[in-house]
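Below is how a single chain appears once it has passed through the pipeline. First comes the sequence as given, then the structure the pipeline wrote out for it. We keep one example in the README because the format questions we get most often are answered faster by looking than by reading.
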Amino acid sequence: MGEAKRRKTLGQYPERSKLNADPFISHSWRLRFITHPKAVVTVETSQGIYQICHLMFAKDGSIFVQFPYFKHTTGLVSKISFEPTLISPTRFDLKDGGKVSSHLVKYSHHPDGRVHFSQDGKVRTEIQRTSFRLDGPIGRIFQMSAYDLRGFKTITPHEAKRDKAYLSFRMLGVPTKAISLSAEWRRIKDIERYIRPFGRFAGPSTVIINRQTGIQSEVFFYAPPAGYPLREHVLMIQCMPIDLLENITEPLFIFMGGWDQHEVRKIGEQATQTGFLASMYPVKSPEELRQKIGSIDFIPHELSELDTVATTQPAAQPVSQSMSFLRRFGWITDFIRRLWR
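Resulting structure:
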């Protein structure tokens, strides 16, 4: 049994944004959810509606996360590895196992557990590892921290595209300059058991209550559309405001994903972890760093070779690159702090 079952309770239906996904709502026995191949996560503040990331379900069951709305395109992508006996909190340097990229990479989590950063025709798929499978276990797909939301493109309700769902978190009551965004892969039947009061529906957006801290937060449920695999699962997407660090003077985001399987069967049990993938945009002194650790960008002669193959084959920051990651692989929110040198 996953720890989420004992730690989160579903509550009332929150006030909805003007930018919503109502046309794409479906439901199971007791849970409503957004079901569409493409979705945009937005954050609505008193300054506007910011587009944070783009989510996509592929027809093979894969989950993609992209960041086309961020202003800086040069960053650092990294594969972090460590011993299972590592004691937290621990500081990781993203330069170790990392490469520079001049493009905003896409994060992919495939049904067999393969995870990687890529961008077709622009970067080499070198930063990769094996995470948990999507056809059985539950777990955290990604965690993202975004500082200074002015670095993300805004959108108005009349600009919303009809071929996408919009998961809009409203944060109008308090100043919101930074957020923490996470997505958990959950079994629908497990969520339904903990909907309160009994006999009622929840979703597609609702409030969850942390049973240990009592903290309430809004979540969206986002599921693969009809005809896609893994329909017994749903992404539970949570977004919360966080403090803007004093020494961050420009927009920046950190993304993490690809952890080992971390669903546990017993209360108090901790899963063994050996690594994850991470990215950070922008990166400090990118050209100097590129010379030291290399890049995953395709260079011109490599692109020429790809073009030749394509025609002959049949078609088919003001901060350092270090961070602190406080690991606690249960089902409650992983508390992630950043310690900048």
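The CA atoms of residues 132 and 261 lie 5 Å apart.

See the next section for the split statistics.
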